[in-house]
Amino acid sequence: MLYDVAVVGAGVAGSCAAFAAAKRGLSVVLLEKEALPRYKLCGGAVTRKTMELLAGEGIRLPTKLFHEVRKVKVKIPGAEREIDVARGNILTTYRDVLDYALAKEAERAGAEIRDATRVKGIKLEHGKCLLETEHGEISSRFVIGCDGVSSIVRKHLFGWRFPSRELGVAAEYEVPWLSLDAMEIHFGHASFSYTWAFPKREGATIGVAELASRLGESIVSRLESFASTLPYVDASALPPAKAHLIPMGGIRRKVAAPRAALAGDAAGFVDPLSGEGTYHAALSGIKAAQFVSEVLNGKEKSLLAYQSFCDRELLPDLRAMLYLGRLFYFNMDFSYHLFKNSDVLFSVISALGGSEPKPRVILRRALMFSLKNLPSYVLKRIGQA
Ligand SMILES: Cc1cc2nc3c(=O)[nH]c(=O)nc-3n(C[C@H](O)[C@H](O)[C@H](O)COP(=O)(O)OP(=O)(O)OC[C@H]3O[C@@H](n4cnc5c(N)ncnc54)[C@H](O)[C@@H]3O)c2cc1C
User: Fold this and answer.
1) Structure confidence at residue 217 as a pLDDT band (50, 70, 90)
2) Is the pLDDT of residue 4 over 70?
3) Domain that holds residue 355
4) Residues 352 and 375 in one domain
């Protein structure tokens, strides 16, 4: 059988793409290398804008999958602040259950799911995509690569990979016995990231991320030393840590080819400041499917329309967060001074929840605040010297 579209990877991007393509009447096969439900390392924070995006597309998710966060504690060396979170702005979940529910939604819309089916190679022949899998060959008119940071679709059909300076590495403990009343974000344990403790429905997730190029030790040692600073954690009772790569968003990359599109982590769509990837995975997966459908029914000439969408709609906000991150992490001492005395950091957290302002507005405010406060900060430091 020749499918209209083969989606590789049944994470958030893949299941959303498969749902959106099937909903538009295309014949879809969703290929996943693991048996579903499969484990995925993730803080599992899901924002209001993601839930609204999924609901707007017609994807139904039971509320029992989520834990509602009502408070965020931000800790920076020498200061701590607590922010109340409006109902539904930030939720947490486990990715095995969320991604499985999304895959089931894709199936409900008409997609055929083949799990435990790894794609080993892809080639283009006579205008068709031929996917070599563990269980034989599959052919399709289009391929959407939603196969994560080490994407095989990207390798075979796009020929680029992330340089190490554009990759983060993260590690987490999933702690079933830990109960937290707030989501915690700590600065000061990583040079270009933060560390976290997120409450979940049944426990909590403790994690750390760092730029791969700046990590001078193992990420697990970094996680161990962060966990040892948490007063409520018994280090001897922690489960083994797991680690995974995170691509850095905000950099323009080729994500569309004549017969293929990349979405989610495969395309590098992760907020480089917050690490939020599920929203961009869902959005890019849905949009990739929508553009494939429009090319098939003649409304669009080619998938270049998807590239333009990503460059126009996804890239500017991700890039603003990248610049904000560079500004914040350039001189941590100044950043602490800045963030202790302004609401910029708190705007970032509200923006994550989907409230205004947009990242570009936050960046502008942060720059203005930095320019205004730099002279007084320099004078203070000179006075202390
Ligand atoms: C430690 C950590 C914490 C994070 N915390 C958060 C958070 O709290 N909130 C948030 O929004 N984001 C978070 N992120 C980012 C988020 O997890 C990712 O951006 C998101 O998972 C991207 O989804 P995806 O569908 O693109 O890729 P993935 O979820 O990685 O899915 C890719 C799928 O493709 C499959 N696959 C791979 N290769 C093949 C193949 N050859 N054949 C078939 N299938 C294949 C994989 O098995 C997998 O199921 C975190 C990331 C990490 C590492």
Assistant:
1) confident
2) yes
3) 324-384
4) yes
